[in-house]
Amino acid sequence: MIIRKLSETAGVEWGNGLSHRFLTLKDGMGYTVTHTIVRAGTDSALEYRNHLEACYCIAGSGKVIDSAGDEHVIEAGTLYALDKHDPHHLIASPDQDMVLVCMFTPALIGDESHNLDDEYSYYD
To answer: Does 121 fall in a domain?
Structure first.
């Protein structure tokens, strides 16, 4: 059994926020669970070419813009899933951080971060 508390996990700076990785590849579960903070007012162009991701918002708000340009409001109690390696923009509201619980499959190594200077940032 694996038991971890947020206070026991090191945060990884991912570019526009902080990600605490509760489960990683070394845990052998086949997926990663994170507690991710998206800093207020940030716009992150993201794409996961090698991972599928689902995110559940537990605090704050913002929006995700899909590759077709459609905007979807994200607020506490909303889940979005990137089931086709979808390029997207994740935008936190200007007045508060957005907090997400995210799941990646396959599992992340654990120290990945984004290069937000690229058109879309991704983990290799």
So the answer is: no
